[in-house]
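Exercise 7 asks you to align residues with tokens for two separate proteins.
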Amino acid sequence: MNRILFFAQKAQSSLCSSYRKTPSKCFSAGEKLIVIMGPTGCGKTELSVDLISRFFPTSEIINADKIQIYRGLDITTNKIPIHDRKNVRHHLLGDFAPSESRPEFTASDFRDSASQIVTSARGVPFLVGGSNSYIYAMVAKDFDPKIAVFDELNGGFCRELRYRCCLLWVDVCLPVLNEWIEKRVDEMLELGMWDELKQHFRNRGNTKYGLEKAIGVAEFEEFLSYDYEGGEDRAAYEKAIISIKENTCRLAENQRRKIVRLRDEGGWDLRKVDGTTALMAKMDCDGRMAAEVWETLVVKPSVKIVRDFLKG
């Protein structure tokens, strides 16, 4: 509880200062777009569903996770279950089935598809995901698919945006996020991730694209080969789990680093909401208290940020 109180006080202090900021500066006069970004595990998806289902009912979600966009492996890729979507419409979530002629859903593909959704949306869409390359491709006015802007040798982020954007960043202290990620991997295993992957390996054929890049596939491949032979290797299984946790934590750190670069090098006006205390409460407190912390420190400030943006 002591660590929760510490981070709660810190979060409340940062919220007070963020409220004094002016609404996000917009660089174009096109459609409005609300972007919720942050590293894997920070609570982006839960927050977006909370905001739309309770406060902005005409909005819809455009998934910006480059692995969740592929059909299949719902547990392994941590797609939000239908019953947790609270009747909020989700676009580009498990919609793409790769083929030999079109093996990948590229950033350019995402820009084209998501742009059409924004144009036809009945409310202001929420672009939600941890794939910063997708987010950049979607909102940057000048986008060149041949340039990997997040490569340290390239850089040169486009500062001008093609939409009037509210850029909401859900941030979490990395040690706390890593602890949460490890817990989440254990929960995914309890939900059937292992069995799902076994089925995937039996049916995948010779394909090496799309879902093959999902964390959990490569890590479990060696272990599952033992299972096919009718044997059991507990050490290999535990090693696979450790690798999944380490690689997911590494992914989260890289995603956060890219967001910081968009802010510092790209000049993007990110409105940060600190989810550290909320994740600690989920791990340390009962459900009611955890829900209260989430509501106070994540949902309420996010509602204010979005409402201020929509009024502008």
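Second protein for Exercise 7:
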Amino acid sequence: MANTTAASTLLDQFLAELKATGSMAQSVPAGYTPTWAERTWLSLFEGRSEALTFGLIAFIVHETVYYGRYIPYWICDYIPAMQKYKLQPDRHITDEQWWKCLKSLLISQVFVQLPMMMLFMPAARLVGFDCNAPFPAWPKVLFQICIFFVIEDFYHYWAHRSFHYGILYKRIHKVHHEYTAPFGIVAEYAHPLETAILGQGTIAGPLFFNYFVEQVHITTMLMWIAARLCQTVEAHCGYDFPWSIPNWLPFWAGASHHDYHHAAFVDNFASTFRWWDRVFGTDRRYQAHEARRHAKSKVE
């Protein structure tokens, strides 16, 4: 009975936050003079639904960063000198496959991801996110984003690994593996259930961190989303440049790590870092593959 009452109260609080409208007067501490950036940010919510406004802002950030991050790789596809950095140079994406991917992405982003973004603000308010002025200091923002990467990577490793078993792969994850030679925007090409489940690593991680560790500012969430999108597009880009992050930060997974997963359909389940695959032995075949690839490149 007590659990039912608690759940009902929580639902009532969530619905109340869902209906909340922004108020600059309530978002600025007494005696504090907000900066131009803070005033501009708070003005976006003034008198408007906080849930809908934040959802739309998050969606705009998502689309801008996701497709913007892909553009350099798309350009590289048309530059002959860049083809030597392709991880799977013998596999080519047809125009038909590219457009199929884009159409599926736009449908998923509008009808699956956008609703999730609309519901984030009420959930954030419920666990105590800071939605007011002043903005957090940059060192705190960068520290929290680093922690979010670690949390998401751990969650992604196990959730992704589970998707490679039985019916979960056959009915859900197989969609993502339709492209054996990934290219940037393939990152979010997936079954709606996979999008919702794996997306919890990005969304729920900061919520739990805020509830159990320390307060997170709502603007930090936007920067975290942008950082995570840059990472996942890079992981699916299909290129291994000399300046690619793994070549100077060895524990970063990067494109070569995840490209092998798409080509071989096995191993390398982590999203951002290499350590969980190393600890649990799910990168042994990849290590052998990389040794052969580098040996071949030296001969050439």
